[in-house]
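In this supplementary section we document a worked example of the pipeline. Step one takes a protein sequence of length 100 as its only input; no multiple sequence alignment statistics are reported here. Step two produces a three-dimensional model, which step three serialises into structure tokens for compact storage. The input and output of this example are shown verbatim.
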Amino acid sequence: MPAYEATAEELEKYGASLNIWQQLMLLQAWSPLIGYGQRLVNEPDPYKKALIVAEATEWLASRTDAKLDDQLVKMLADIIRTPQGEALIRWALLQVEAAR
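The serialised model returned by step three reads:
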């Protein structure tokens, strides 16, 4: 299997040409994702994991200039935070588990 090497355009696109200070600024700007990831990994309850994913998705949507994604993600997150949303998530997880 041949080794993959990034093209110059890919390196530029994904920030490989950033200096150390620019890399640290980028890490600082996106560090909340690390926190969401840590919480997700440490949470045993699947429904609470869904809440963490909803929170992370809201944060990600807020980082874009588009407002439509902010609204959509907020509405979906609001739905799963309700008792009916929790019931839906838990039911869906049971169906996935039963299908295994």
